[in-house]
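User: Is it possible to get a 3D structure for a protein together with its bound compound? The compound here is magnesium ion. I've pasted both below.
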Amino acid sequence: MSTTEIPIGTIDSAAAALLDSRLVILPTETVYGLAGRADRVDAVARIYHTKGRPSDHPVIVHVADYQGAVHDSWASGFPTLAQELAHAFWPGPLTLVLPRGPRSGLNVTGGQGTVALRVPAHPIAQAVLRSMDEQDPQGAPHGIAAPSANRFGKVSPTTVQHAITELSPYLQPGDLALDGGACSWGVESTIVDCMGERPMILRPGGVTTEDIATLGLDPVTISQPTTRVPGSLASHYAPRAQVVLHEFGALPADDVPADRQGFLALAEIETPAGMHRLAAPKTSVEYARMLYSALRAADDADLLLVVAVLPSEVDGVGAAVADRLRRAASPR
Ligand code: TXA
Ligand code: MG
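Assistant: Yes, that's possible. Here is the predicted structure of the complex:
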């Protein structure tokens, strides 16, 4: 397998590459995405190939703003519930599941009658979408399909280097990356299905159940969605090291040498003797921000085991941290 050198591009060169059906590693405020033009079958097919992702799993379409989202090309309708959520939380870490529009191909939606749309807040993602519309006004509003820029089932990247290291062997000359520094949220967007009467949370993230409830809405959380949500597979977001959740019992575990064990917990919890501290976040928000780089650090240090203590408040973004850690700890 030859590794392609992936250059760091500019906003305009990345937008031109996307218009030309090439792929771009793109920062968002949640995690880095592997972006491709959402209305081009060849670009979307390359996203699946590059990630090693099964073709029946849908991807999120990212658009520049609310106007681009309500334009009837991507979604064929925008229920009142979705309008309320969009007005409150876009741009931001929120993805809405809506009826599929004519421009959202079945390859984007995994063959389903719904499409997932998101307006990212990251200034680079915003600028790229706007540059696409400027360079090709007839195609506006452009949309980019962008799953997290990691191989299927692995940990999402929160820096450009993580994404480049993981995907370079599968990318091609002409593909680019943009460096937006470390992602401010660190976990993927909240996904809300807006097809029913009540908002259905398919994946917890930065926009929390409590945030949604402040609008007077009554969200339900689905732990096993019936639609295909790869992040909902039992084992996902997993490093090479085995992840276990620490509930009770003595640490370090006695079946693995202590110096091959990592420890992940809020700063207030001390590191057990001999274990490798992976992160010491002070709050749930910091925990989310550090989570994936801590799991990657475990693999870089060749650890065999990561013992994680869930954040004490599992409301707010702590719920997203707990969700990802449970999946990372699921049997493969
Ligand atoms: O924060 C994020 O959402 C990141 C950044 C890059 O935007 N993207 C991301 O994409 O996490 P990905 O592909 O790794 O996860 C997208 C999730 C999947 O779990 C997928 O199944 C779900 O969105 N999804 C996409 N379309 C859907 C649909 N029509 N119905 C239900 N779930 C859908
Ligand atoms: Mg993902």
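The chain has two domains: 11-221, 242-329. The CA atoms of residues 48 and 118 lie 19 Å apart.
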